[in-house]
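Still learning. Show one?

>
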Amino acid sequence: MSNSKKVIVVTGASQGIGAETVKAFRKLGHQVVATSRTIQPSDDPDIATVAGDIADPATARRVIDEAIARFGRVDTLVNNAGIFLAKPFTQYTAEDYATVTGVNLAGFHFITQLAVAQMEKQSSGHVVSITTTLVDHAIDGVPSVLASLTKGGIAAATRSLAIEYAKRGIRANAVAPGIIKSPMHAPETHAALGALHPVGHMGEMSDIVNAIVYLDSAPFVTGEILHVDGGQIAGH
């Protein structure tokens, strides 16, 4: 279905990369189910919105049920929702741990289970998740243990999903960004954050969205962790 209308589910869709991903898939003519805690209803009849905490299994169920009720299928799941807390490892609280693992791991696990179950009925589908290049290339001065613990798990799960479902028409890939200009980062931090990349600047949200769209249109690519990180994965 690479060239026909698809039904795309996007988590963390109210702002930043998630919102831009929704726009990109709509420009391609696809129908979208967008979810986040604060998502607002859309006037576009080809966008369904579901507000809720993605860490809650009930939200995952409502999102997939809405996709089936409104559009009849689920072709692609974009696991974009995520939390990054940069703290020294010993300063993470129990609340930090619960929040990050809830969104990053539970938020991946429950909706991916439901989406893949639907994709099995269709004998086709694609799961693309957002990780972080810090999983593979830690940076001095950017404490990231909880990000690596959770997003690293998603990278490993992506490869496992790719192999488990390869013969059933379902692909799984991930995008591992560097530091991206998004609402997460104040403009006054951009110069310092850009200097952490070999290319000397931060990435744009469009860089990540283009990678997602590429992976979704590449039927021979599965199990790939695509680094879009200004060269960080190569060294520094």
The radius of gyration is 17 Å.
